[in-house]
Design a protein that fits this description.
This protein has one domain: Rossmann fold (3-Layer(aba) Sandwich), CATH 3.40.50. The protein is about 30% helix and about 30% strand. The chain is built from six helices and nine strands. The longest helix is centred in the N-terminal third of the chain and has 18 residues. The structure holds S-adenosyl-L-homocysteine. The site of S-adenosyl-L-homocysteine has 25 residues, from strand 2, helix 4 and strand 4.
Length: about 220
């Protein structure tokens, strides 16, 4: 990509090694982290910390998630590269870029306009071209491009938004943090014959999912 990419190449390689050491095994996921310039997705003030394995503030009270958490999330989706994916909560756009590297097409929704615009610019700077971004309430999904083979919700909600279940392909997988504000359970959701199955996969702390099928603003 750009020349500045090389400046951060060593840090990025070290982050990938940390993810591997913590048990991330999916080679496609590790490759996505090795190729995605996280420093382009964090505000200038915290850029020197871009390759730490920690969450960072991105403005408007929102955060870019911890890379290890995102890696676990992405491993759970087990993407093959051919999928159409819906992401709810674009935030910085970093996870969107990772999804772009792991799937065929990514549709992402962010409710905060300024974050969406900043993410759009960062995705462009990073050379990501298979992402479409919508500003709005992601708990309603994006029906125009449904069904999705995978849905990733990057904010924690009180319930599984019904429109997202409707927009999930029959064999699709959705991951969503469910529970109260400040403490959720990361949950894997699958469509079954008669409805949905929900499997808890671990504790999580995400910012609140705000919207019609989420928390009040
Ligand atoms: N994974 C992101 C971090 C996401 S933080 C990254 O890598 O940067 C969660 C984001 O979800 C925030 O930006 C928040 O504004 C957004 N959000 C919360 N509720 C939403 C909703 N109903 N629809 C779309 N975005 C929402």
């Amino acid at each position: 990509m750009t020349g500045s990419r090389d400046t951060y190449g060593g840090y990025r390689a070290r982050l990938v090694e940390q993810l591997r050491a913590q048990g991330i095994r999916d080679l496609a996921v590790l490759r996505a982290f090795a190729e995605t310039p996280r420093h382009l997705f964090v505000p200038e003030g915290v850029r020197h910390r871009a390759y730490e394995d920690s969450s960072l503030p991105i403005g408007r009270g929102q955060t870019i998630s911890q890379p290890f958490t995102q890696a676990r999330y992405l491993e759970t989706l087990a993407l093959q590269g051919t999928e159409r994916v819906l992401e709810v909560g674009t935030g910085s756009g970093y996870q969107t870029a990772l999804l772009g590297a792991l799937a065929s097409q990514v549709f992402t929704i962010e409710r905060v306009r300024v974050l969406a615009e900043t993410a759009q610019a960062a995705l462009k700077a990073a050379g990501v071209t298979n992402v479409s971004l919508l500003i709005g309430d992601g708990t309603l999904g994006w029906s125009a491009y449904a069904p999705y083979h995978a849905i990733l919700v990057a904010a924690g909600g009180p319930e599984i938004p019904p429109p997202l279940v409707e927009q999930l392909a029959p064999s699709g997988r959705m991951i969503i943090p469910l529970g109260a504000k400040g403490a959720q359970t990361l949950t894997l959701v699958r469509r079954t014959e008669g409805g949905v199955s929900a499997t808890p996969i671990g504790a999580a702390r995400f910012v609140p999912l705000v919207g019609e099928h989420g928390f009040d603003a």
